[in-house]
Amino acid sequence: MDRPRNIVILTGAGISAESGIRTFRAADGLWEDHRVEDVATPEAYVRDPGLVHRFYDARRARLGEVEPNAAHAALARLDAQWPGELLIVTQNVDDLHERAGAKRLLHMHGELNSGWCLACDERFSWDGPMGPGAACPACAKVGSVRPDIVWFGEMPYEMERIEAALRDAELFVSIGTSGAVYPAAGFVQTAKYVGARTLEINLEPSQGSLLFDERRYGRATVEVPRWVDAMLASK
Ligand code: OAD
Which atom of ligand 1 has the smallest separation from the CA of 151? Predict the structure, then answer.
């Protein structure tokens, strides 16, 4: 591959799996023992806010028990050293990319460590449990703070910025994502349309694997550092 200038990297749950965070589409089809529609939709939140909060409070608490792995560290190294444009777009709501040191990063599906007040529309960082009785730090209203997570049926964040980066991309890399959830699953097609080369790094072929020019299969902690080392050696 000729040395690309502009790189867009999409990451999914597979990059955090070896840190001890379970992926979404496990063999049982359940997400941490819940059906997605019971915990990750606006309807679920209206129906049973207590359940949804307990679910995300547990996921947030888990962040304190896990550490970034070699794949997060490698991407942070690439981010720090790559001379061209680079954007890491993560679907993950954990904070492992930033804890590894990544800066050119956006969370298209929101973040566990962020809250959103439905009364005043402010977003703010959040530590510890949230629960249905949390008070908004901006407007002080009680009971209007929800996890700042993009649920099914909601619009992912920063789509304009992502589309702009994809339009300029010369290389698109998809890491640890099953390619099951749009719009992220369609980024590879946008990248191809503008003439970017495309690379998939995953444990196994994803649903869209045949769309990629190059595919590397193995554990993220092995394959991502290997790829990053080769990129930095070529810069
Ligand atoms: P998935 O759970 O659908 O897919 C995880 C992918 O990671 C699979 O293709 C696995 O093969 C791969 N994988 C697992 N372990 C790996 C490892 N050690 N190294 C490399 N790859 C590995 O997760 P996502 O594709 O991220 O959305 O899911 C996308 C979205 O669906 C999530 O952001 C979430 C979910 O519902 C929302 O919450 C809105």
Answer: 39
* pTM for the model: 0.96
Give 107-123 pLDDT, tens digit per residue: 999 999 999 999 999 99
Among 53, 72, 107, 109, the active-site one is 109
Q: Are the beta carbons of 220 and 14 closer than 8 angstroms?
A: yes
Q: At 135, phi and psi to the nearest 5? A: -95, 140
Angle, in degrees to the nearest 10, between helices 220-233 and 70-81: 20
Which residues form the pocket of ligand 1, taking CB atoms under 6 Å from any ligand atom? 12-14, 17-18, 23-25, 36, 40, 91, 109, 150, 176-178, 180-181, 202-204, 206, 219-220
Residue where the block lists tokens 């777009």: 89
Longest dimension (CA), the chain: 55
- Between the CA of residue 55 and those of 59, 130, 233, 235, what are the distances in Å? 6, 11, 43, 43
Residue 97 designated active-site: no
Atom of ligand 1 nearest to the CA of 206: 9
How crowded is residue 175: how many other Cβ atoms within 10 Å of its Cβ?
Answer: 23
